[in-house]
From TrEMBL:
<dbReference type="InterPro" id="IPR029044">
    <property type="entry name" value="Nucleotide-diphossugar_trans"/>
</dbReference>
<keyword id="KW-1003">Cell membrane</keyword>
<keyword id="KW-0328">Glycosyltransferase</keyword>
<protein>
    <submittedName>
        <fullName>Glycosyltransferase family 2 protein</fullName>
    </submittedName>
</protein>
<feature type="transmembrane region" description="Helical">
    <location>
        <begin position="203"/>
        <end position="222"/>
    </location>
</feature>
<keyword id="KW-0472">Membrane</keyword>
<feature type="transmembrane region" description="Helical">
    <location>
        <begin position="229"/>
        <end position="252"/>
    </location>
</feature>
<dbReference type="InterPro" id="IPR001173">
    <property type="entry name" value="Glyco_trans_2-like"/>
</dbReference>
<dbReference type="GO" id="GO:0099621">
    <property type="term" value="F:undecaprenyl-phosphate 4-deoxy-4-formamido-L-arabinose transferase activity"/>
</dbReference>
<dbReference type="InterPro" id="IPR050256">
    <property type="entry name" value="Glycosyltransferase_2"/>
</dbReference>
<keyword id="KW-1133">Transmembrane helix</keyword>
<feature type="domain" description="Glycosyltransferase 2-like">
    <location>
        <begin position="4"/>
        <end position="165"/>
    </location>
</feature>
<dbReference type="Pfam" id="PF00535">
    <property type="entry name" value="Glycos_transf_2"/>
</dbReference>
<keyword id="KW-0812">Transmembrane</keyword>
<keyword id="KW-0808">Transferase</keyword>
<dbReference type="GO" id="GO:0009103">
    <property type="term" value="P:lipopolysaccharide biosynthetic process"/>
</dbReference>
<keyword id="KW-0448">Lipopolysaccharide biosynthesis</keyword>
Amino acid sequence: MELSVVIPVYNSEKTIGPLIERLQTCMTNRAFEVVLVNDGSADGSEAVCQRIAEANANVQFRSLRRNFGEFNAVLCGLNHAKGQYVAIIDDDFQNPPEAILTLLDEAESGDYDVVYSFYAQKQHHWFRNLGSWLVNTLTTYSLGKPHDLYLSSFKLIRREVVDEICNYTGPYPYIDGLIFRVTRNVGRVEVPHHSRTEGRSNYTVKKLIALFLNVFIGYSLWPIRLFTVVGAVLFLVGMVTGTGMGIGWLASLIRPPGWVVVCWAIVTATGLQLLFLGVLGEYLGKLFMAYSGLPPYVEKERKSRQSTQEKR
């Protein structure tokens, strides 16, 4: 199987059928499959997907018992995809399915593990654009993502990276975070972006906050280390100013008023508390990362004399 296309489906009974038809047309000369994952849709999406899977031999359908969220649905699809490359595309038709071939060509020509799409002109609502900007800014510092890389939901992933992503068994997957734990060999290519033809975006304030907290807390020790640094700086400032005031008072050069002493005590104590909590959080963070279920390293290639003899 050359290519798998994973589509998380949520309330898209009017768009998923035409999307599959377009995929079947533009992928005529490719050995590919489609993995539909219904994420607890409230409309007739499940029945539509069932009919599509029954009518097309290269379409498999999975339905979740409730709405688990986009990333959980994508992870379900990745676990059932068999292709050497796996494309992830939304069900809203804003990304033309023909662009999958553009991602595939870029991955093969550049030998990339992952290829992200980006758009010359995004057709999302301003609120979703704002949320995307916030998450991309956060991931630049927490995941080590390149500044010029846009973490689009429309992307293509090599088989070996998909297998490593599927090792994750926790309840809070963040696909891009899992990708950057595995590889930095990432490319980007421009593709068209269209306006929605049906319905409206499911991107809400609640989902934005949940995603932001998941990225901020679940995939990096950066927040803990930030508070450790802040605590260390406050404590250092308190010690330096306290030493200066003590020397000045002993030498009868200054006599600081009471409110200055109170402020100094608050700053020093706060810095010491943050420093202590940061060190404690570092230990807890290490334990969290250790029990995340991901391996400590990922091999790109395995070659030895013994493995060569086994192949023969």
